[in-house]
Write a structure and sequence with these properties.
It is a single chain. The protein has 303 residues and is an alpha/beta fold. The protein has a single domain, classed as 3-Layer(aba) Sandwich (UDP-N-acetylmuramoyl-L-alanine:D-glutamate ligase). Helices cover 36% and strands 24% of the residues. It is built from eleven helices and 13 strands. The chain has helices spanning 40-50, 65-76, 119-123, 126-130, 143-155, 172-175, 185-192, 197-206, 245-258, 263-277, 290-301, and strands spanning 3-7, 11-18, 34-38, 54-62, 80-87, 93-100, 105-110, 134-137, 159-162, 180-181, 211-215, 221-225, 228-232. It has a nine-stranded mixed beta sheet, sandwiched between helices. Helix 1 (40-50) crosses helix 9 (245-258), helix 7 (185-192) packs across helix 8 (197-206) and helix 9 runs antiparallel to helix 10 (263-277). It is globular.
């Protein structure tokens, strides 16, 4: 069984579906408001747990009702939450998510307690790194905290995976600690300053990242290594809400690689997890279980 450490954000997502995004200054009517567990860190932790991994999560919530609910939800998923700190005098992170009928979304995040996650929070859980195979990070918490997580991961020989969202400038010293970078095409351009996908990915590899896997939505994912490029087409689905798809993909990659799957099989497995996450409204509510991912994988790649 894979043992994975996830360090990152915890948010309560406030989700509303609308026919379209409002113009500046415009008010439009949407559907009923849904409150769903979110935050890229928590999403990826749940994704890994539902795919069969033993997961230790490091994060922060506020001392409020949202924090209590989110922490309870994570524990109900079987996630080790010993590394989650409850912070006083600050709210739990929140995200305002508008989903249009085609399934695309617009998101605004209030980080709250997430920005208090500190390097000390990471080092206090050092014993969890010893017997883990992989660690998974995102950019919704301070960079210095993630750098400590990456440093500890390297100390104990863990595979390190970074989902670079939301975009933040990352120094080369940080990139050299990353085994697999998983951006979408927009984040890839932001990180590299280049429009050409191949040149952009290879420039990041030259700066220190070992492997870049670019998620491309309905087109699957593209793998870039120093001397190898491969596209793995994803399954065809009818999207309802793309929120959480990238987190499902990253979590599935961490699980599959920890289990010793080949890179090609791993990307196919992750494509299926990301696709299934697009078929249900919300982030954590949409994250698929192992049986469903394996079924779609067989239908997509072995039929």
């Amino acid at each position: 069984m894979a043992n994975i450490i996830v360090a990152g954000s915890v948010n309560m997502d406030l989700v509303i579906r609308t026919p379209r995004l409002p113009r500046l200054g415009e008010t439009i009517l949407g559907e009923n408001l849904a409150m769903v567990g979110g935050g890229k860190g928590a999403n990826q932790a749940v994704a890994c747990a539902r795919l069969g991994a033993e997961v230790s999560f490091i994060g922060r919530v506020g001392q409020d009702e949202f924090g209590n609910t989110l922490l309870k939800n994570l524990k109900n998923e079987g996630i080790d939450c010993e590394g989650v700190t409850v912070s006083e005098d600050i709210n739990t992170g929140m995200a305002l998510i508008t989903v249009v009928k085609e399934g695309d979304n617009s998101i605004v995040v209030s980080p709250g307690a997430n920005m208090l996650l500190s390097p000390r929070d990471i080092t206090s859980q050092e014993d969890k790194f010893i017997n883990s195979q992989a660690s998974l990070f995102q950019l919704e918490v301070p960079l210095k905290t993630l750098e400590e997580g990456l440093r500890l991961s390297k100390k104990y020989g863990l595979l390190t995976i970074l989902d670079p969202a939301p975009f933040t400038e990352i120094p080369d010293s940080f990139l050299k600690l990353i085994d697999i970078l998983v951006p979408n095409s927009i984040e890839l351009r932001q990180m590299s300053g280049l429009d050409d996908m191949e040149r952009a990915a290879l420039s990041l590899i030259q700066r220190g990242v070992k492997t870049v896997v670019v998620t491309a939505g309905a087109d699957g994912a593209i793998l870039f290594e120093s001397s190898y490029i491969s596209r793995v087409q994803g399954p065809a689905i009818s999207p309802v809400d793309t929120t959480g798809a990238g987190d499902a993909f990253a979590g599935a990659m961490a699980v599959a690689l920890s289990e010793g799957k080949s890179t090609q099989e791993t990307i196919g497995f992750a494509n299926c997890a990301g696709a299934l996450a697009c078929t249900i409204l919300g982030a954590q509510t949409s994250l698929p279980f192992r049986e469903d991912v394996e079924k779609l994988y067989r239908q997509t790649y072995r039929s």
